[in-house]
Amino acid sequence: MSYNHISLLGTIFKAMPIKQLDKIGTVLSFTLDVDDSYTTKENTTVQRSFKIDAELWGQLATKYINDIIAGHLVLIEGSIKLTSWDEPSGTKRYKHVITVKQVVNLSKPSSDEQAALKQRENILYQDNPF
Length: 130
What we know:
By secondary structure, this protein is an alpha+beta fold.
């Protein structure tokens, strides 16, 4: 038996614009910066930072668009998947991506961010009167 579930707490490092892909649907991609630390045998603390790619698909992308802002602290939950592609040189490349199912924004937006969020909402919904 296996269970594919991941929860991560981190800061949004980079957020990409929402994309409408022809046959697949809407996707919102972002990179999460997650910190980690451990203590060595010599009692020295080592700090590490990991960049983790994540994606929101379909209605979740539009639902959480206002929570995916660079610099914001978020808690995400989802599942991990392995994607692959071929480079022009013929080399096969792989990376893990989190397919996000839930986002909790733990940052309060500044007044400038609130104005930007309102503008993003207007752009997102301008073609859809419903």
